[in-house]
Amino acid sequence: MNEVKVAPSLLxxxxxxxxxxxxxAEAAGADLLHIDVMDGHFVPPITVGQQVVAxxxxxxxxPLDVHLMVANPERHLASFxxxxxxxxxxxxxxxxxxxxxxxxxxDLGARAGVAFNPATAPDVLPYVADLVDLVLVMTVNxxxxxxxxxxxxLQKVAQVSRLRExxxxxxxxxDGGITPDTAPPxxxxxxxxxxxxxxxxxxxxxxxxxRALRASACAAPPGPAAPRTRASxxxxxxxxxxAAPPGPGSPRTRASAPGI
Length: 260
Hints:
Blueprint: E1 5-8, H1 18-27, E2 33-38, H2 50-59, E3 64-69, H3 77-83, E4 87-91, H4 98-107, E5 111-116, H5 125-128, E6 134-138, H6 153-161, E7 171-175, H7 183-189, E8 193-196, H8 198-201, H9 206-218
């Protein structure tokens, strides 16, 4: 398993001092900053847009992990990349042409992520795995911070983790209800990035909170992945890429985005 990273979620920060909160989280040891973009349509609230991402980019040096909880995300990829997003994650639920959207993110030079709500099975992953740098498993229903983790979602984390047996080397991110108590089972199931909002920004000492998350994840005893249930269907093997047709010149392929 890759080293566990902590991505404080700015959704839980004080919006009156968002820039300072971003800088303080970075100084406290955050690996990434998670920014939730909500449109009031795919999820009930409306949060921030490209201008806020651009403002945070001017202040932060660590990667910006931009989670688009919006309908028609393909309309906004270029503008969020221009604003400074290093990772752009879209929801499978709103992308009928997911392969095309993930490829477009890669073509912009960003790392591509795909998110799944708690009740969504990750069955599409084998067909887009070669374009996915990060899988985000929502461990709560999206839209609001401060919710309790839904235990059944950890079975999905384990299901996604089994893709590594077919050679996939991306990150698995969990978002929702992540605390020092829930981080260990999430990491045992295969999570490598912990998104934490209230567990960081709801405390007086961000550095201590981030250390506590890391320590709990690192102390998680080795054990089997979350058990499969009758409803859990393991993803199929990642299909090999088809050979390029003969012709002059080298075929154009999308470059793999660098690891986090």
